[in-house]
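Figure caption, in words: inputs first, then the predicted bound structure.
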Amino acid sequence: MNDNKVQIFDTTLRDGEQVPGCKLDTSQKLIIAERLDNLGVDIIEAGFPVSSPGDFNSVSEISKLVKNATVCGLTRAVKKDIEVAAEALKGAIKPRIHTGIGTSDSHILHKFNTTQEEVIQRAKQAVSHAKNFVDDVEFYAEDAGRTSNEFLAKVCEEVIQAGATVLNIPDTTGYCLPEEYGAKIKYLKEHVKGIGNVTISCHCHNDLGLATANSIAGAINGARQIECTINGIGERAGNTALEEVVMILKQHPYLNLQTDINTKLLYDTSLMVREKMGMPVQPNKAIVGANAFAHSSGIHQDGVIKNRETYEIINPEEVGVTESAIILTARSGRAALAYRAKKIGYELTKIQLDSAYQTFLKFADKQKEVIDEDIHLIMEQVNKFSKIAML
Ligand code: KIV
Ligand code: ZN
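Bound structure (zinc ion present):
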């Protein structure tokens, strides 16, 4: 495999779907899974099969449907979970079992009331058991973000020996700073025997708004898989947003890290997930928010009309958005008004524009946004004194 390829592991249907209000039925999950496969994700985490008969059924149906991606099922480090996941994944062309256990002091003490040694034993047994069913076994060290690097390295070494193919290093609580998370991945690369034969995966949560930054720091330091969700949905403040990591890697070619995502499908996929989950996206969300390519201040609008790149680092068409939007508000200038008027057929002279702009400001001071219907009314006013050329 290309050393510079970052595999995209999508967990919209598992970590994303477990959020209250985001529940999907099997038919909705199948539609999203098919879209993720077409989008070019490398791994689809389809669910947590032991958690309910419905989830088992979804993983099983997705396994039969998906043509290109690996299909993955989550388990705890529990024999029964692993057996149920293996059963659900039977129809998959490329099945993966994702098993693991908490490794931080907090999890070892409060969740399991056990010792580090016992956690290592359970981790090894889970990986070995999963290997009886599939070749591809991913191990997660839950709360790795708050686990000491030394203990984490020990756990990783043991599970590699037990047959793990992918090591997931989750910042489960979204605690780490990018530098710290990047250093953790670097530490593992440098201290774990056999690490060169497995893929390191980043799984970051967004409690401090750092999920994307941490995932990128992980990739820069040697991780070659990023776990993420469409629109960044997920537990609490969410997971790393797929569209963000993909576009960061694309917009920074000097990092020399690539994904296989067809970015032209990003916006449409985001809309599909919003609609199916009934989970709206904030307007200022990077890449896929309603305002991601909308310009409203006069200075920015003037720049974008002259050359889009003055205020845009991404061509909207690259992510499937038809074009940048020039929004007319009281902060807009003459250039924006002329641009929008032209779009609906009016070619104004300089004198006509001056006059139209005075009327426009009256509209704009009264309402949040001046829309096309208002522009027609403004043009009617101007037309009374001077005939506007129509395009
Ligand atoms: O955040 C997390 O630690 C997880 C694991 C179950 C992979 O979602
Ligand atoms: Zn998670």
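The CA atoms of residues 30 and 62 lie 6 Å apart.
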